[in-house]
Amino acid sequence: MNKRLLSIVLICMSNLLFAQSEHQIAVPMGGNAYTSVSNDKTITRNGIVNWNSSDIVYKVYVRLTQPGELKVALDKVVNVIGNNQISVGINNKFQTVELIEGKDFPKQVGLWKIKDTGYVAITIKGLKKTGEKFPDIGGLMLSGSAITTKTSYVKNNEGNFFHWGRRGPSVHLNYQLPAQTEAEWFYNELTVPKNEDVIGSYFMANGFGEGYFGIQVNSVTERRVLFSVWSPFTTDNPKDIPDSHRILMLKKGKDVHTGEFGNEGSGGQSYLKYSWKAGNTYKFLLRVAPNSNIRDSTTTYTAYFFAPELNEWQLIASFKRPKTQTYLKRPHSFLENFIPAYGAHSRKVLFNNQWVCDTKGNWISLNTARFTTDNTGNINYRKDYAGGLDGDSFCLMNGGFFNHFTPAKTMFDRKQNNKKPQIDFSKLP
Asked: Which domains does the chain have, with CATH numbers?
């Protein structure tokens, strides 16, 4: 065999091995697609359905770990009526595909050269249709040298991950409480930077072993201060909680709504509708006090909120939790998005000046925190999560498919500022 023929054989073998090793992934629309249309209902667990308007533009996000070629094909296309033209694009380079009733559709829409790692948005537009709606699309098939086993996307709906994945990863700061500290009070300051107050965001300041306390953006017109305590009875349905395990509301502040919550554990909930403002700093104070009578195994949790616009501490609520004897455990903060349609939006929050006060009245600064994310990030479905330091504050970010991420369990030390809270507990409402 001459050298030229041998070279051709080796090239063919190399190409064959490359083709055999090329990764192909199925990206379901139900967990990875978004639109910019408010209250859009066309993204379902089965993908894009009942798509009848060319004004609705979809974006599908995947995170690549290496540059290279990206081949895109439509997957699980059904209900093709009449003649349809659909455009698929990456980085403003679009390819048009025709989907015609009764005919096979192209196996590949196009090929794009991806020059860098990180998130890629695949845009899908409807151009023309002769029927009442465009075809239903279940997902995309992606292949090429840019696709690897480490490509990040929501792979399936096991464990309801189309919901959790589209919401995006939740992120947490776990403040390091000194050992043997009987912390009765937990103080924190929170600032949502301007333009970071995205609908669906929960900026949680004072988390503890049995509940959470922070502020939300519930809609364009409504914002809340939310304080909840979990029941010791494990269920997602509050109606299942026996009377002996129910959270008891002891008192509440003016205009505060109280009741029960479910779906993510169950328990007692309180909230105040309050139009807090991005850019302003709000203060949060939580008291955790076990009953002094050991025969009464209960702990009382009381939450206070300080708005600079009002310049005074406000009572949110006080709850008694049965089957519990504890002081403050697991002080933490978190950031989450609770509306899946807003998972393609980035949000950020700053936390500063964390303190606890023990049972003897000693204030202790909490200036060390461990960053973590939830299972959406831990299993590599989403990588748009970050936390750490921003000036003198701790910070958290999530959503929006930004490219950098903070490794889970990273420790951060905030600069000590010696701004001990000046609070007269006897004058709290």
From this structure: 25-153 (2.60.120.260), 166-427 (no CATH)
